[in-house]
Amino acid sequence: MNNIDVNIIVEGQSEQTFVRDILAPFMALKGVYLYPAQIGPVGHKGGNVNFDRAQKHIGNFLKQRSDTYVTTMFDYFRIDSKWPGLDAVNQKINKGTILCLASKAKTLESNMLENINNQFPDCNVRNRFIPYIEMHEFESLLFSNARILAKNIEVKEEVIHEILDEYNGNPEEINETPANAPSKQLNKLYPSYRKIATGKAIASAIGISQIREKCIHFNDWLVRLENLKGV
Questions:
Q1: Of 24, 123, 128, 181, which residue has the fewest beta carbons closer than 10 angstroms?
Q2: 200 membership: H or E segment, kind and range
Q3: Residue 46 has pLDDT above 60, yes or no
């Protein structure tokens, strides 16, 4: 089995901690080694993700070594208005089209790939860059197990199921509106929620295997990483 090195550019400290402490050890067992790097400066706490900055980070990693892969872990909820493909998504939504998470993600990720390929034509982008937009936010993964989430934020399990029922039981559909974003809902239920410490504890208790069972888009991303070959 070949060892595959993947630089993963993440939004903030909660994603970096999740990748470093939970996802990377899981993927290492499959010979895929993840190296998370925050998009912002040291101490950056996440927030709106600027595409110009993302593009620069992606290009820097693509140029460093020709034998590594580059991927991303950015929240749909946080990407800025200049993000490739976002206008196309918003135009459809404004016309009343109901887009599922897969449709939104596909539009954004395919446009990201085209943009990066055009910007860095000598970096074998189509083979080495795996764009991933998290639908709709890191905290959506924490809804993969209602029992564990409820226990950790000290609410009745039925409360979590009521939220999931609004989205047909799919954690990744918990949406991007300011009031209904996963982190906003968790903060309402549990004001002591902390993105890094609490998020990591809940994700660790649930485990990657169960998260990927419930979160299809997240799972599809991991499948792509698991199937990478040496470049």
A1: 24
A2: helix 197-206
A3: no
